[in-house]
Amino acid sequence: MLYPQQNIFRNKLDLSGVWDFQVDPDQMGEQKGWQNGLVDARSIAVPGSWNEQYEGLYNYLGLAWYVKSTYIPQGWRGQRVFLRVGSACYFATVYVNGNKIGSHEGGHLPFAFEITDQIRWETENVIAISVENELKPTRVPSGNMNTPLLPVASFPHTTYDFFPFAGIHRPVVLYSVPQTYIEDVTVVTEIDGADGILKMTVRLSAAVSEQGFLQIKGGDTTVTAKLAFLDGLAEVQLTVANAKFWSDKTPYLYVLTIQTEQDHYALKVGIRTIAVQGGQILLNGQPVQMNGYGRHEDFIASGKGLNLPLLVKDYQLMRWTGANSYRTSHYPYSEEEMQLADREGFLIIDEIPAVSLQFEDDENIAVRQRMCLQQIDELIARDKNHPSVVMWCVANEPMTPRLNLTASDALNDPAVVKGKDFLDKLMRRVRELDPTRLVTFATLGGTPTSWVEHCDVVCMNRYWGWYILGGELDKALVSLEQELDAVWETWHKPIIMTEFGADTLAGMHGHPNVMWTEEYQAEYIRGHLMVAAQKDYIAGMQVWNFADFASVQSIMRVGGINMKGVFTRGRTPKMAAHVLREFWAK
Ligand code: GCB
Known about the structure:
This protein is an alpha+beta fold. Helix content is about 20%, strand content about 30%. The strands form 8 sheets. An 8-stranded parallel β-barrel has the order 23-24-25-26-27-28-29-30, surrounded by 5 helices. A 6-stranded antiparallel beta sheet has the order 3-2-4-10-7-8, with no helix packed on it. The mean pLDDT is about 95. (2S,3S,4S,5R)-3,4,5-trihydroxy-6-oxo-oxane-2-carboxylic acid binds next to loops.
């Protein structure tokens, strides 16, 4: 799943723009031939969620069709041509010139199909993509569950607290590659004193044996090696003497170039290591704090659609507060975002969309588990070469019907046993695919203790002073401290608070600082950071949330917005942003 690129051997045509669009609530489009063109189309932006582009589509989550016609350059003849979708939420089917090419399930990861044999070289080609985002218990994340563990009804009926935006969220790209092309590259780095060691595996699309060439370049340093492909596979190890290591403070990137008989691919790589030791996370052997946010891909009008100016602005704002880290809560973010993280020096906890997993119905559990494993495979394939990605997160707040079980009750509780088995399997899969990074999942208060066993880092989402002991900050902070110490005593693993936060209506002030005021949020965050500062085992503090974001409608969410942002949805800072600056930026 290499990111498409333009070079002298490869071509790329980005189909982002305004497409034809039509909803298909009765799912009759295919029968009516919409794969050849729509009859009553309106305009839609790609990438972008459809929900905020038209008022009447806000809550529409059924099937919809996107169509675009395009020439394919004559210069691509003789090459293999692929159609790649950065992400489509949730289930997508691709048609080219009326023919069904393939489908993909899962809302946040890229997929590509070869379309070489479908191409018309003399006329325009009709690309049609149908996308559907129904909420179902078997999906990841799940919706419309019969067993609502969440106490407050919501519309749409998700199991998660963000709006289920739908549509083509990332670019649709046509690209061409040589007949035998570089299909995959894996780069693993180690540090030996002042030297950087790169272990690289390159896989070709065919099991051929040939010679190739590889180069690492950065500043005045150039290191080269020959590649000997045997049955399409080559492995090589290189040493960069006196290397510049990648870190959050100095995000140095080398350019790795691979050349084969027919193809050429370049990749930016950072040399770094990540490990845990006692209560600390070590980046390049040195303790590092992962301070920042839980976030969302979310903005006015674009919804979850890729919004490049927003990405750049968000990184600037995060840096302005002194943050060096975030979690891709609660699903993989765009590839463009990950590239920016490499470049800007952010430490990423990369999460699959397994939000609020529940462990009741065996059939649903089995389907969900398959989806989770698929998404782990796809995510690691996509993000394995990003130095910014330091930790994989296999779930956010998996839960059982009864929280806070005693250790002995938990032993026999069927949901606890099933949940442990489920999470262990996911973490095992991650380690098989990538033994070089850390693994975790985000716990909520009352999570069965045993589930944490295989995590490298204990990630805690806690709302002392908001959902529990709201308005009683002094007591809340005492409870927080007691719980943190207890978790440390149990596991002796580094702890990151991956969520803590308070809903805050921007512009609402109070003296005294009651809940929902900017003062309350500021003091809440200050209190948490002060507790954390006294604990050596705290390896990071990630505020929930970077910015206010669209959620589902409920009595918990004024205007359908979760207001725990340190910035508003439009990116103006609340008082709390200045508190973070005091702690992190000075
Ligand atoms: C959580 C969830 C997050 C919610 C947040 C909240 O624990 O992980 O998705 O948005 O709480 O604000 O309630």
